[in-house]
Amino acid sequence: MGNLSKSVNRLLWALFFGAGFYIVFAGSRRFVNDSPGQLLRQASEAAQRAVSQEAARCLYPGLFLESGEEKELSVQEWYIEWALAMHPLRRLEYGARQMDRLESAATYEMLVSGGVHDENEVDEAGDEYDLSELAQEENEKAVMLEQEQADAAIPQETAEISEPVTAGTIYNLEELSDFEFLMDHFYTVETNTSISAADLNAEALLSKDMTIDRNVDGPQILIYHTHSQEGFVDSVPGDNSTTIVGAGEYLAELLREKGFDVLHVTSVYDLIDGKLDRSEAYSRAEKEISAILAENPSIQAVIDLHRDGVDESTRLVTEIDGKPTARFMFFNGLSRTKKNGNIDYLYNPYIQDNLALTLQLKLQCEQYYPGLSRNIYLKSLRYNLHLSDKALLIEVGAQTNTVQEILNTMEPLSTLLAKVFGV
Length: 423
What we know:
alpha/beta
């Protein structure tokens, strides 16, 4: 009985196959008038063309652009397409196309929704992401980053800082050896000049000995003011104690208390016939300070104390030990312009020493008084920093600070100087 059933099934399959072949062959006679042999040759050629095209499409997909319009197929092409569709490799190729379409749609959705998120699209609380909200957040972050980069491009900040500072940062040599890291975190460079990784070799700069020998007789530190007329928001006209000169005297007193012999020069270099004239202030200051240094070989450090000039809405202030304190900025002249290179007539043999001193002070400030110092500002000229290997130009606060805020700054500044100078 079982053998008879198998025989019947085989006979039925043969009949179905034969009937199908007859239908296809007979139907094709309505469209072509060729002989069966010629029809088979055309079918074979069409099959070869289809296989070649599909192979080329797989190897060079970018060369084939779908027109989006359905093309009419001959009977032979229709039959070949139908036969190929049954092949496992053709099904695999079709599945790959579908996955490619899905991935492209997913990628586009990711781009327009603001970025890549958790693969499960849920947040830490297990809730689904609100993609529109995430996109808005990322846009806001991008705007903030652009603003931070713009702020870093100018030497003065535009936001008031009044939060108490409690903990500092100690940077390791690996971080500081990265030139990009160093520039991003500690420096602002004037557009007219430039500096290279060779100039800012952190290991070399930090290994320089910036200590002062306090056993020598005579003054060891000299403080002066190229711009002695710089005042503050509540300075009293005619009262030097309420200008940058008064701040310099207070700094000198604090350093004396720490064991240094300090000479404070209060000469005026920015007044001509009673009128403000700063066109040759640095030249006049250089002449006198050079003479003082020649008379006092015991002097090992020279500090030119200034205050900055900023927009009237800018407040350079933070809080140190519960007191409002003006922020300050270390300043370096590189004697170099982008256009002409090194400026020979402003030669400074101590550029590396000057850079070492400001970097060491800046790192001490980041450790003990974070937020107090602004970025070290690098400019193209010399600014009398050639007068000593330990020459400093410091901008303390601005015209928008109060006298008391400036005086409050002298306390942490004197501590930082003492740490680097060797107390």
